[in-house]
Amino acid sequence: LRLRIMKGALAFLCLLGSAAAFAPAALRPAVMQRSVAAAPAAAGAVMVDRSEAADTWWGDKDYPPSIVLGIGKDVPSSIFGVTSGLAFAIGVYCVAQSNLVNILSGSTVNGFYVAGALLVPYSWGLHVAAWIQKQNGK
Length: 138
What we know:
This protein has helices spanning about 1-20, 75-100, 110-115, 120-135. The radius of gyration is 26 Å and the shape is flat. It has 4 helices and no strands. The longest helix has 22 residues, at about 75-100. The mean pLDDT is about 75. The N and C termini lie far apart (about 70 Å). It is mainly alpha-helical. About 10% of the residues are buried.
């Protein structure tokens, strides 16, 4: 009986704690309302001005600019294309070998094949990146 009461009390405290995360700011203690500006600045910190965001709007064209690819903006379309084909081939092989379309059990699942099957949707993203770069002449 004592264990049951302790479990109930613990469940109530967990519920109370999770509900506190959604409380309005006016009801929160002052300790939680510190502003970021009040924090002491680190010595030697460098301020980076990113107020000028790159324009990624492409409503007047049929394809977006390369900047939408982030760190891949300078990667040639041929690299994206080859990696897309390679990821697709590996992913399809893993889907075929893991037999994901049939009933699975703990003894028939191979984690490497399941992880490799995730390359199929990833290859689509690489394909789109290759298309964007090709349209932009890269």
